[in-house]
Specification:
about 140 residues, alpha+beta, Alpha-Beta Plaits, 7 helices, binds inosine-5'-diphosphate, Nucleoside_diP_kinase_AS, NDK-like_dom, kinase
């Protein structure tokens, strides 16, 4: 079951020089490939669309400010069960609760600055890929 998922390496990952480390973990999974990748600074509109479901929550405004605080790496990753797979590599939202061995578990301490976004379902992946890579066929 080949799928596509949207991955964002968040501004903390880029600032801390962890792009290679994180992409390396994704690349080493058998058969997964990077279908598109770009370093870009996100604007308010994109973030409102991307994180729309969280609007009104206490963490929403600081999250958007953080996501605008520096460039992110946006990637499309393709391969067998990649949606569930990248979520497993990332670990749960809270990096302290995340298992060592996962990206968040190995490198994070702060819930907001948890290094990586990965689509959480097929429906989210389709929606998010349209926002970040509208030209992708
Ligand atoms: P996910 O990224 O693990 O799917 P979501 O619940 O969709 O988690 O939340 C989106 C992002 O918002 C998280 O990755 C994290 O950066 C931030 N976030 C979520 N909950 C909190 C919180 O309670 N405090 C601060 N930031 C949060």
């Amino acid at each position: 079951m080949s799928q596509r998922t949207l991955v964002l390496l968040k501004p903390d990952a880029v600032r801390r020089g962890l792009i290679g480390e994180i992409i390396g973990r994704i690349e080493r999974k058998a058969g997964w490939t990077i279908a598109a990748m770009e370093l870009r600074t996100l604007g308010q509109d994109t973030l409102e669309q991307h994180y729309g479901e969280h609007q009104g929550k206490p963490f929403y405004e600081p999250l958007v400010a953080f996501m605008k605080s520096g460039p992110v790496v946006a990637l499309v990753v393709e391969g067998e069960r990649v949606i569930e797979g990248v979520r497993r590599l990332a670990g749960p939202t809270d990096p302290i609760a995340a298992e060592p061995g996962s990206i968040r578990g190995d490198f994070g301490t702060i819930v907001r600055e948890n290094l990586i976004h990965a689509s959480d379902s097929e429906e989210s992946a389709i929606r998010e890929l349209k926002i970040f890579f509208p030209g992708l066929s």
